[in-house]
């Protein structure tokens, strides 16, 4: 299978549609991104990376960071995390607070905002906010084997100034004692991890451990156990795209996590880690062309977990 | 891999736990079932069937029938079905009506009761209820290649007399014009298809087309296209266990559909169709030992779609 | 105070606005009513009735019947009724089912559809549906001292054929065992009581007991105790206009109950019973001109219970 | 009617029940209050004040302040306030956030926490927090004609440190742009106005304008117009006791506003302003003995707005 030809074909077929979708505008800094960009990168379990389009341009990974923060938190407190956050699809928007009231401050899963805020609270334990942010950046550099990865401070500040809904979620859960640290500290870390800037190439390398039984084939380091790797993939499949997770599974058939910056990380277990990026979003808030590119890729490679 | 040894081992390890869980009692006829039963059957894409425990005893497949009714309905009107039913996990109980009010009578997916009632309405089109029931039984006999499969009329009557919630769902959607036939007709068919009696062995054979790109390897007949087969699997994974779908994906990692009769059908794409049965349910309404047996099986075979 | 001059003035001021609002169309038979009608009738505790406009024309009282059915049910089982229906405003539409699911089949109050269906189930106890309907008609003739009052069978049939939402509510509550009789029987009675045809003049006489400490000054009969009369008024004020009850209290300041036929019954405790009718509804489903006429009347008479 | 004898009788009959109910404990400072207290004060439109029991002891008026803040806000921007807050009962708890999400950040009424936070935001306009607090204290001293009224800073601080849910509400509405000032400022004012300390005697005098067509008979000052006075009373009746408003209207039949400090202010339009206080709360969060005392009072005086 000629992966390079496949992704070049996809990028070329989507060429006329560059710019489709709506760039996220609720975070002012993100609204400034040029919408006409499209990149794909695939890193295989053999350690090779294939790229096409704007695959080397950095973008704000936003919610994709939730996968890596979950990995960090699981490393810290293990399966105890599930006492504070659920594992079920939410059936509602990424920033809904309704479910939290009905379920006593326990978010449905770690990939909606409320859940990721709890995960951040766990990662923060015993640290100052600045240290926790540093640990996360360090972890991402380690995963991608690339020390140039960094946080975009402008984006972080922009989020911090406008993220009222996230402050609401944090305070609401604090009221239920499911946030242990001062809400300002937790959200300081939360907004920074969302603001990590990475390219498709870097992202596909950072996620490869999930396709390779928990071990990074590039560095040989074991990040998580095979079982934990499977479980993170399962969560990505059922909960990775907010209230569009069912649809993504239906069309693409791969565990994935999207971010409002227009990136999507998808995992083909046993085969490859795939990162796509295009800033225009569909109505649920996932990259429009990114999702289409992944559907084309899954069809052409036969990598869907639901059968060739 | 010695599948026979694996399933014998599982049945034997679960031996001391037979009877755990709570048999469904809201349908009086189901409450009479002996709880101490446990069966497993695996049919592989090579056409071989392996059984262990009470794998030849018939039980009420209940909601597992929703997978086959969906297959029938897709065969009738194709992807047009998605104008009347969604593809997202519901985030609520199997018989919740709240979501229907918020989303104007469009059920979230075909595997919750409301969705399956819409699917039944589609299958009913142009038929008398008796004919539609006949067509479904015929379809199941064809899939399992077994003419002894039949409906348990006592269970059907028991459901019909106590299924007030389902009458509520049907009338509610009729009010939104998402049910086209008289509610009594639709529910007559609905209660009958739920009341099909099958053994694990029969069920694993009936489901094998979903593991084999849509084609039954036993008979050679193509039931659905490979793409449709993948999509049904995707729906089973994200929505097959009501509000426990995320948990099932997390622990088992296979597309599956459970029924309150204690049965679960699971699909290992490209490998096998698996049916387990044990009447005691967990608190979400899925077979307690059935789910455990499948978790053990997935671990020992490495069949999880999320990686070995 | 010259009541005749006041209501003549109101009818004449509203003359140019006749026909405003939207006639209920979800019950086909109601949609046929001429929208250009407007009537007012006041019956005082002294036993005098004043009328203006189309006050002698019969119309479908619809949900206004809920006040009288509640009176009947309280007469049968007393305060025990509150074990099966609440006394709080619903915060949602007249036919919402969401609250019922959250509160285990106990409707919020007797003036939303679900609550009135429970009340009907109580009135039905020990009777055949036909007898219960007969008892209600008899009661209304007794209250208004007018034997010409009757049910419009065409409207009743029209509701019966299209009232899917009410069948949903009935079945839903039957599932919670809060409906004791067959749903078909209960709704048969329910649709008939809604279909009572009365004029403003008749209605204002029928309601006068609520303004007069429970006793009809025209006939001298005690219908309910003073305390029960106060309590029914309280329920009309807090719950009589579905999710527009707060607004009605804010603008009019009188206990009232509206119906989708365009009628409103309002009570000025210690002073008078008022019936208005105009078929065009506002967006919440209350008579548009009827509510305006009552606001004008309350202002000009100083009858608001919240002060002159 | 001998009001002094009536209230002395009530206090004496409730003597053996002092201490019933549960003192609010979610605000640490309030939990310290001696539960065995009970006071009643009535100020009539003739300007006389009657007291019984602990009617001169100061207590934290808490949510009762919402009535006075609403009066202030209406004075500032008039009926424009209703673009930012509704007038309907909420059908849910005092601090629910669910409704806010469903209705785009517009609280249902000014007497639930979210609504009062919006009202506070309106009162804050053009001021520093300290000035707004000063204006409110000044207003309350003016209404009660008593310069000793003051804020309990310990309570204010206690609320500020534990009021996570209110911070959540404030941030949530800020996200919908229905809060204009920094959330910290708005809540600073909000927590201080809740922490006003007043006795029953002071409170009954402060509320007398609502019983007297908007004018304080003690000072002769017009506080609001008669129409506005009626409307505030209407809101108190339909929304004054959170999700227990219907029940309060049913049993007491007077506009009222309760606070978790155990106080209730009730208005008998055209007759009197009544303040009761007893710290033990019922399950909805209203003073248990306070509500009983008011029901006894309404029965014995015949002051229910729903008839004698």
From TrEMBL, chains A, B, C, D:
Keywords: Acetylation, Hydrolase. Its EC number is 3.5.1.2. This is Glutaminase. Belongs to the glutaminase family. It catalyses: L-glutamine + H2O = L-glutamate + NH4(+). Substrate binds at residues 63, 113, 159, 166, 190, 242, 260. One of its GO terms (biological process) is L-glutamine catabolic process. The keyword rRNA processing does not apply. The gene is glsA. It is an enzyme of class 3 (hydrolase). HAMAP family: Glutaminase. NCBIfam families: Gln_ase (TIGR03814), PRK00971.1-1 (NF002132), PRK00971.1-2 (NF002133). Transmembrane segments: none annotated. Homotetramer. One of its GO terms (molecular function) is glutaminase activity. The keyword Disulfide bond does not apply. SUPFAM superfamilies: beta-lactamase/transpeptidase-like.
């Amino acid at each position: 299978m000629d992966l390079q030809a496949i992704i070049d074909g996809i990028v070329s077929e989507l060429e006329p549609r560059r710019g489709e979708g709506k760039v996220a505008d609720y975070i002012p800094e993100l609204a400034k991104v040029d919408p006409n960009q499209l990149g794909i990168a695939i890193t295989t379990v053999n350690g090779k990376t294939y790229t096409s389009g704007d695959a080397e341009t950095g973008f704000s990974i936003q919610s994709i960071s939730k996968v890596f923060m979950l990995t960090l938190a699981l490393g810290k407190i293990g399966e105890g995390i599930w006492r504070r956050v659920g594992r079920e699809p939410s059936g509602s928007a990424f920033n809904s607070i309704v479910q939290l009231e009905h379920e006593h401050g326990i978010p449905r899963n770690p990939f909606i905002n409320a859940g990721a805020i709890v995960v951040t609270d766990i990662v923060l334990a015993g640290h100052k906010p600045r240290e926790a942010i540093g640990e996360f950046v360090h972890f991402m550099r380690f995963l991608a084997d690339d020390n140039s990865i960094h946080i975009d401070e402008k984006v972080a500040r922009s989020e911090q100034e406008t993220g009222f809904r996230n402050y609401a979620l944090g305070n609401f859960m604090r009221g239920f004692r499911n946030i242990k640290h001062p809400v300002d500290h937790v959200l300081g870390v939360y907004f920074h991890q969302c603001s990590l800037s990475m390219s498709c190439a870097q992202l596909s390398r950072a996620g490869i451990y999930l396709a390779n039984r928990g071990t990074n084939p590039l560095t040989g380091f074991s990040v998580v156990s095979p079982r934990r790797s499977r479980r993170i993939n399962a969560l990505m499949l059922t909960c990775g795209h907010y209230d569009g997770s069912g649809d993504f599974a239906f069309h693409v058939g791969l565990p994935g996590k999207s971010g409002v910056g227009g990136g999507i990380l998808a995992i083909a277990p046993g085969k490859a880690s795939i990162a796509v990026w295009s800033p225009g979003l569909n109505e649920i808030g996932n990259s429009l062309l990114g999702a289409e590119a992944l559907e084309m890729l899954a069809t052409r490679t036969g990598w869907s977990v639901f059968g060739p």
